[in-house]
Amino acid sequence: MPSSGKGAAAVAFALAQRGDRYVYGGNGPNAWDCSGLTVAAWKQAGVNLPRTSKAQSTFGTSVSRANLQPGDLVFY
């Protein structure tokens, strides 16, 4: 599915970081942890997320699996 808008901007930023290292607590620009990358990606789209994945999991609006869009964050 083609993406557009803020989700597309977040995805484009995240994809541009491919090849960067994973580092616990990493906030970029050349090393990231999972929540650091999502914070930076969504910041590029004009959205401010909380820093930790735990806090991110309660931020925003929940959607069903069938309604996921590019850029949506999935938590287990």
Describe this structure in words.
The chain has 76 residues and is mainly α. It has a domain at 5-51. The protein has three helices and two strands; from the N terminus they run αββαα. It has helices at 5-16, 34-44, 53-56, and strands at residues 21-22, 31-32. Strands 1-2 form a two-stranded parallel sheet. The longest helix has 12 residues, at 5-16.
Which keywords apply here?
76 residues; mainly alpha; two-stranded parallel ribbon; 36% helix; 5% strand; globular
Topology of helices and strands:
Layout: H1 5-16, E1 21-22, E2 31-32, H2 34-44, H3 53-56
Helix pairs in contact: 1-2
Please provide a brief summary of the model.
This protein has a domain at 5-51. Helix content is 36%, strand content 5%.
What is the count of helical runs? 3
Low-confidence stretches: none
Report how far the terminal alpha carbons are from each other.
Answer: 24 Å
Output the radius of gyration. Answer: 12 Å
Order of helices and strands: HEEHH
| Global structural class | mainly alpha
What overall geometry do the principal axes of the alpha carbons give?
globular
Average of the residue pLDDT scores: 94
Largest sheet, order of strands side by side?
1-2
Overall helicity: 25-40%
Number of strands: 2
% residues in beta strands: 5-15%
Let me know the largest β-sheet: 2 strands, parallel
